[in-house]
Every structure is written in structure tokens, then in C-alpha cells.
Amino acid sequence: LVDGVLYTTTNLGQVAAIEPTTGDTLWSYDPGLYLEGRPAVHGFLTRGLAYWTDGEGDERIFWGTGNGYLVCADAKTGRPCADFGPDGSGMVDAMVGVPRAVREDRDSLNALLYGIHSPPIVVRDKVIHGSQVADRRITKEAVPGWVRAWDVRTGEHTWDFHTVPNGPDEFGADTWLNDSWRYSGNANVWSFLSGDNELGHVYLPTGTATNDYYGADRPGDNLFSETIIAVDVETGQRVWHFQAVHHGLWDYDFPTSPNLVDITVDGRNIKALVQVS
Q1: pLDDT for the residue numbered 110
Q2: Rg of the chain over CA atoms, in angstroms?
């Protein structure tokens, strides 16, 4: 609810603006992206959207789709943001550049390999999102659940945070024994992100690496699975992390966004993070 307008999504990825006192539809937009097939894991879900304004009349809403696009629409008209993305469609293909995320491929349940079901978050003019990656893989190879950031005005890709390392020299690669980072996936943020504009941090609550119930193909602690990571929103670099489960099994994903709270301990003010698990 922003300035007397309620913005809402449907599970098929349509968005509408509603006058909340009367229920009248001000506009609706259907990108039709459900036509590409069944999304990964739980079918058609769109859990929410993000709002951004420059304070001078440019107002935008952002949401992800089950087939892996990030969509931008004008909050006043519902029209796609013509300056967002490469072709004037108001969309960017978030699968491009992610290892093993091949749009034409399907899993053993004939579902897409990658989607964006939970809402993105906007921090300091970056729109950031996690992803949904199929959990019940029957192969050791899977799509890594990298967290991606885009420029809020242009849709230009600005950074990725590699929740599964992408090279032997990356931080955490030594926790994937036998070079298992080369083919492992998931460790995605399927739930919600949190951010702090003042600190310039975005907080990532990740899930289990591939596979939820079998880890023999990925020996080691498997950083950054089942981890809270604080990331610099300008650079995508790790600020700090806390891994709750080493070599996770049995699907102990972080199920929701971290709570950011101001507390006082022994007379000292502390910006704290509180995470439900």
C-alpha cells in the first residue's frame, strides 16, 4: 500500500493497482510469462513485489516471475518501463549468466530449472532478488542460487553474490571438497531479503545445497549454504557471514527474511540482526 494505492500480484505473475476503499482496479498488467511452462518446485507462485521512487515523479514496481524474469512497471500506469532492460520490454532475463540455468531445459518433473517467486528488494537504487531452484534433483548437477542485483533505472546487471563459488580462488571454495562447487547448485534465497539503506547492506538467508537429502557428492561445509550473509549493496562483496548448518541435510533452509532491530546492550546502541530458523 503506497500513497493510497494497493499493488498486488497473482500467482501467475499478473499485477494490479487497486483503490483500497472501493476495490476498483486502476490498472492491471499481465506479462504472460506463465505460457512458458511449469515453474521450478512449487508451481506458479508470486509472493509479492517491491516499490521504488526517485522522489521526483518516477515510481516503479518490481517483481519476479516463475520463469526467471525480473519485471519493472510504471507504478502510475502499469505500463512496462521502456528504459528497463535491453529491448524496451521492461524485463531482464535473470537466467542469463547463471551456470547451468538453461531456459530450454526441464527437470525430471518437466518443470523449469529456475524462477523468482519471492519479491525482490530495493536498496540504494539496486533491485536485488533471490531465486527458486528445484530441490529434488536426481543428479549432482544443479543451478546455483546466486543472488543478483540490477540497476533500478536501467536494468543493467551490477553484481552477483555467488552462494556457490564459481572458481577455486573464491572465498569458501575450499569448503567444497573434491571441487564439488563445479557442479553443485541451490544454496539459494527462496524466501525474503532484508536491507539497510543507511549501512548499505543487503542480508541473504540461504537454503541447502544440492541435494536436500543427499550430500555425498559435495563433501565439506559447503559455504554459503544455510548461511546469513551481509553483502555490500554497491559492490556485491561479502561483509560478514554466519553459517548455521555445516554440510546441510534435511532441508534446514532459512524460511524468512532477517529482522533488523536496534537494541541497547550495557548502554551501547547496536544494530542487530535476528533470524528465525
Answers
A1: 85
A2: 19
